[in-house]
Amino acid sequence: MVELSVFQRLRLRLFGSVPVGYRRKSGWKAPIMHYAFKCPVHGVVVDYPHGFHERLTCLRCLEEKWKYV
After folding, report:
1. Do residues 44 and 34 lie in contact, with contact meaning Cβ atoms separated by under 8 Å?
2. Domain region containing 43
């Protein structure tokens, strides 16, 4: 869950994603910009861009998908 300002919520609605700041996980060399975006199943979630196309992925959806495989 992330707290978004009124401006960020407006930008999320208009553009589909909004930067929420740099975050760093253990083992990473440098912080990476994370974005809030709307998942059709889980609502507003936060993730960082993945891969060459820099796609944003809902990790909860991925967990649910692999849970039943």
Report:
1. no
2. 6-67
